[in-house]
Amino acid sequence: MITNGHSDFSVQNYKPYTLRNFREIPQMEKLSEEEKFAIEVVGSVLPFKANNYVIDELIDWDNAPDDPIFILTFPVKELLKDEHFNTMADLIRSGASKNEIKAKANEIRLQLNPNPAGQMDHNVPQYHKEKLEGIQHKYRETALFFPSQGQTCHAYCSFCFRWPQFVGMKDYRFATREIEKLIGYLRENPQVTDVLITGGDPMVMKAEILEQYINPLLEADLPNLQNIRIGSKSLSYWPYKYVTDRDANKTLNLFRKVVDSGIHLAFMAHFNHPVEQETAIVKKAIQNIQQTGAVIRTQSPLLYKINDHPDIWAKMWQQQVQMGIIPYYMFVVRNTGAQHFYGIPLERAWHIFREAYQQTSGLGRTVRGPSMSAHPGKVQILGVEEIHGEKVFVLRLIQGRNPDWVDRPFFAEYNPDAIWLDDLKPAFGRSKFFFEKDLKKSQSNKVRSV
Ligand SMILES: *Cc1c(COP(=O)(O)O)cnc(C)c1O
Ligand code: SF4
Predict the structure, then answer these.
(1) How far apart are CA 125 and CA 262, in angstroms?
(2) Keywords in UniProt for this one (predicted)?
(3) Domain for residue 1, yes or no?
């Protein structure tokens, strides 16, 4: 048994705040009525949820609404384009009914590219002629699994690229209770070595539920299964999960069980800002997870106003290495939801990455980025260079829909405003990127937009 020694930390009751009750948050008195109304307007379109830990321990309210963690969780006006904001604001002011607001919200949502990177159409595998709705399989080695009870989070990030599943756009949800189908799929696909359990946040599940997914996976004794990854923001949004929550010990023991069975447990933690990894409780949670033998790796998108400075990333990576955590990915924010607000020009993203990377010892240089999770794969911006008088972006695929595409340098015309792969054209007068030839004809006109 694991003992947490959690006597230093008192038990905390999780209290969520949503559109319905955010005005009850005592710290709200620091905001103007206009700012509160903006939360209501934007929160009617994009998901909004905060909780008592984020509010009391992470946000610096003297700095709100410019505080990075405030922006991370509370919707600010600029998240919506002016026209969308004004339409919704007028509707709410006119006293429109819930249904009218919902209908308009859905109309706006459809204009925010709710399904980037072809997630719905291209990555859902088949098993015995049936579409496996709770599974995505894009890269040869790794299958994503979306347990149905893990499709929410302890709080919502305002940049979230999975936002449609939190606002009730049912068609955009992936979920299955059917771990048996996943096991069947893994048996028939021995090339899959990794299962990535994701959400939402699978760590919102109580240990008893998580066990119902993990135990069968272990008992199946799949020869190909080497690594179980859990993608989670819980260390940032609810670290009590691993220290004082009622199921903390049970959760940690489940982690240990995975490790003891000979499978590597990779805890893929989302940290967007150093503040999230500096509280006493998160440090304890990190230690507790590490004591199970699980290894924590980290990833985050690069976000305007939250972490768009190299020193922030350098600090984050340095602290992580010191805590025995492995920096893993820096992402470019996806082309969905509030990309127009959060997006950062690719050239600037590369500068930020490079200047942060230079500030870490080799131990932190396990991180890769900036990386765009686009339709062909994970595209890394290696830099901007001038080749025979033509200024170009140098790129490569870290992951590819086709494994043979990985790690070949390729070039795009320089475009100072580009914020996503869609904005790039092949350099040197070529009509296509090398990987576009292989993609099916039916997709070829869409390839750079998804
Ligand atoms: C990022 C990602 C993975 C995991 O890729 P790694 O480079 O192995 O971490 C798997 N599937 C999808 C769809 C992804 O976007
Ligand atoms: S934790 Fe992940 S899935 Fe949850 S809101 Fe944030 S980005 Fe979205």
Answers:
(1) 27
(2) 4Fe-4S, Iron, Iron-sulfur, Metal-binding, Pyridoxal phosphate, S-adenosyl-L-methionine
(3) no
Tell me how many domains the chain contains.
Answer: 2
Specify the residue with its C-alpha closest to ligand 2, atom 8.
160
* Residues paired with residue 296 on neighbouring β-strands, in sequence order: 267
Same domain, 197 and 88: no
Where b means 16+ CB within 10 Å and e means fewer, 103-116 reads ebbeebbeebbbeb
Model-wide pTM > 0.70:
yes
Domain boundary among 75, 109, 143: 109
245 and 332, same domain (yes or no): yes
Q: What is the pLDDT of residues 27-53, one digit of tens each?
A: 999 999 999 999 999 999 998 999 999
The pLDDT score that the predictor gives to residue 2 is 46
Q: Does residue 198's CB lie within 6 angstroms of at least one atom of ligand 1?
A: no
Domain that holds residue 69: 6-109
Return the residue whose CA atom lies nearest to atom 13 of ligand 1.
138
Q: Is residue 448 part of a domain?
A: no
Q: Are residues 256 and 371 in the same domain?
A: yes
- The tens digit of pLDDT for each residue in 148-191 reads 888 899 999 998 877 787 876 655 444 455 788 999 999 999 99
Would you state the torsion angle of the CA atoms of residues 220, 223, 226, 228, taken in this order, to the nearest 10 degrees? -20
Q: What is the pLDDT of residues 257-273, one digit of tens each?
A: 999 999 999 999 999 99
Task: Give the residue carrying structure tokens 């496996």.
Answer: 132
* Ligand number, closest to the Cα atom of 376: 1
**CB of residue 334 inside a 6 A radius of ligand 2:** no
Q: Is the CB of 139 under 6 A from ligand 1?
A: yes
